[in-house]
Design brief:
- A 3-stranded antiparallel β-sheet has the order 7-8-9. The chain has a two-stranded antiparallel ribbon with strand order 1-2. A two-stranded antiparallel ribbon has the order 3-4.
- The chain is of the alpha+beta class.
- The two termini are 42 Å apart.
- Bound molecules: zinc ion.
- The site of zinc ion has 8 residues, from helix 6 and helix 10.
- The site of zinc ion (ZN) has 8 residues, from helix 6 and helix 10.
């Protein structure tokens, strides 16, 4: 789903996040244009759609941050730190490897390579018992060892940079005594305490970060609720075969088309009512705010729901195994031949047996030769995951 773009502190957070991305990927991507209040809400949504590359990059960034310790920004922002502590160090440990060998430098042992082993993730106690070093995390990205808590609370200063467990430790032949040295260092013990305290606080939901977290959760829930209503309206209009758009869809337009049903619902639904009030307020004060009402978003919702329905139908057809096909074309207003794809199959549910004909979609046909038509049909069946050898009749 698309990301939200609320105003104020949220926007500053997004800007901050973009800066981490820039430092990680050196993409040189331009920042969000926070001004230009004269644009309509729908134009703003359209702008978001044009930012697909940015979204993809953000997704890549999110994936790396949540899978590899080396991708964390320094310092780790508060909201991300809370998220990472909630996940715990275990997903970042990679303690079963694979670990990359590193060639040892120096005259004596030149050419000899050494490797980290899983055994280093366990500390042997004097009584012979072995306990897991929860702080130790391995980054496949940087092929180095890091300290989970020291990295979490690292700040961009000289002390931090001096610690190899914050910048990445790779000298495997120095694991002894570097690991135990780090474990006993004052800096590590301070970070360890901070980590444990914050983790305990989050579990008890009593710390300040929890207040922020509750706000984030509330925001998430609000947007999900709004999206739920928009999807319901989309389903209703699609089911009734009604057009979505009017002549003009800006907030000031007198007739925004049938999608205006959302505005009607806002008279009775408190969530939509609040959303509309905020939108109107944002427009009046010249601020940017995501509405989720633009024609592009409407098309995206239709497309997502359409694909979901199609997946269900195809699954049903596959369950029936054998099927028949009906393909027929007719020209549209632009004189392009539109081929319609209908599949006939037997649907069995309990004792109820029914022969169903399901429409899977249209596709334009350029050539009308038998060879071209056959190729088109076979190609579309294959794209839908239907095996032509199971076609009967
Ligand atoms: Zn540490």
């Amino acid at each position: 789903m698309k990301r939200n773009r609320p105003s104020g502190s949220q926007q500053r957070k997004i800007k901050k996040r973009k800066n981490w991305r820039r430092s990680l990927f050196s993409s040189g991507e331009s920042d969000v244009d926070e001004g230009n209040a004269s644009r309509s809400l729908h134009q703003q949504d359209s702008d978001d759609d044009d930012d697909d590359d940015g979204e993809e990059e953000e997704e890549t960034f999110r994936l790396s941050v949540y899978s590899d310790v080396a991708a964390w920004p320094v310092p780790v922002p508060d909201d991300l730190r809370v998220d990472l502590i909630k996940r715990g160090s275990e997903p970042f440990q990679n303690r079963d490897g694979p670990f990359s060998p590193v060639e040892r430098q120096g005259e004596k042992s030149k050419g000899k390579s050494q490797q980290l082993t899983t055994a280093w993730f366990y500390k042997a106690l004097p009584n012979g018992e072995k306990i897991l070093r929860t702080w130790m995390v391995y980054s496949p990205l940087k092929q180095s060892l890091f300290c989970f808590c020291c990295r979490l609370f690292a700040v961009d200063d000289k002390v931090t940079v001096a610690s190899s467990f914050v910048t990445g430790f790779q000298l495997w032949w120095k694991l002894n005594p570097k690991v135990s040295d780090h474990e006993d260092s004052e800096q590590h013990l301070t970070c360890l305490e901070k980590w444990k305290t914050l983790r305990a606080g989050l579990k008890l939901q009593k710390c300040l970060d929890r207040v922020n977290q509750t706000t984030v959760d509330r925001e998430k829930r609000k947007w999900r609720d709004i999206l739920h209503r928009l999807l319901d309206v989309t389903l209703f209009l699609a089911h009734q075969n009604l057009p979505f758009r009017g002549h003009r869809e800006t907030m000031s337009s007198a007739n925004k088309g049938n999608f205006e049903l959302v505005e009607l619902l806002s008279n009775y639904d408190p969530i939509l009512k609040e959303h509309f009030m905020r939108l109107k307020h944002a427009v009046a004060s010249g601020k940017r705010m995501t509405s989720y009402f633009s024609p592009k978003i409407q098309n995206k919702l239709i497309c997502l729901l359409g694909n979901h329905v199609k997946e269900k139908i195809v699954a049903d057809i596959k369950k029936a195994k054998y099927f028949g096909i009906l393909f027929d074309s007719t020209p549209d207003v632009s004189h392009t031949d539109q081929m319609c794809e209908v599949i006939r199959y037997v649907h069995i549910e309990g004792d109820h047996v029914e022969v169903k004909e399901s429409f899977l979609g249209f596709f334009p046909v350029a050539e009308k030769t038998a060879a071209e038509l056959t190729e088109n049909i076979l190609q579309h069946l294959e794209e839908d995951g239907l095996d032509i050898s199971l076609c009967r009749g």
